[in-house]
Amino acid sequence: MARKPGPRPNGIGPDPVPVINTTPLIDLMLVLIVMFIVAVPVATHKVPLDLPQGSPRPADRAVHRIDLDAAGALFWDGRPIPPSALAPLLARMAADPAAPELHIAAHAETRYERVDETLAAIRRSGITRMGFVGNERFAAALDR
Fold this sequence. Notes:
The chain contains four helices and five strands, in the order αβββαβαβα. The chain is an alpha/beta fold.
């Protein structure tokens, strides 16, 4: 039988009511939410590429080069090209039976978005022989 609220048998004040302090739980949940908001975009932004592993290329293989300058302008084998011309050039290169290699060099100030668009266009074209060149110039900055 449940007791009615009222004075205690010894006559000192009303019966205590059990209450859980939820403030620490709310604080913990807010910290976890902030951590997930910060961590999830970093973990999900990537372009999957299958980069070749193995011996260096033979000397007789043709090589094409894409350069990106600081403003994001494209250069194909040293000649400036509009972004719309990249897909046809890549398709022609992918169809070449000699399987030429593609080298990519981006300026240090090039926006990552522009590099990412270029890598996505290369992946869509089906090119499998690709390499990044000129990265040794960034080694000194990483050693600091």
